[in-house]
Amino acid sequence: MKSLMRKAVSFLKKEDGPTAVEYAVMLALIIVVCIAAITALGSTASQTFSYVNGQVAAGNGAS
């Protein structure tokens, strides 16, 4: 257990530790933004496809 603690402390003291944490935080933020954008655009796209579907269906019934 002490060996694991020593390795953890050594990792955090090196510059690689904070850099890895910074990259992990940036990646998490990018993922959150992507999910929010997909959710917002997905709703709009769904409404657009429903509208187009209704227009096409109305056009097919008129012939």
TrEMBL record:
Transmembrane portions of the chain: 20-41
InterPro entries for the chain: Flp_Fap (IPR007047)
Keywords: Membrane, Transmembrane, Transmembrane helix
Taxonomic lineage from the root: Bacteria, Pseudomonadati, Planctomycetota, Planctomycetia, Gemmatales
Protein name: Flp family type IVb pilin
Organism from which the protein derives: Limnoglobus roseus
Domain of life: Bacteria
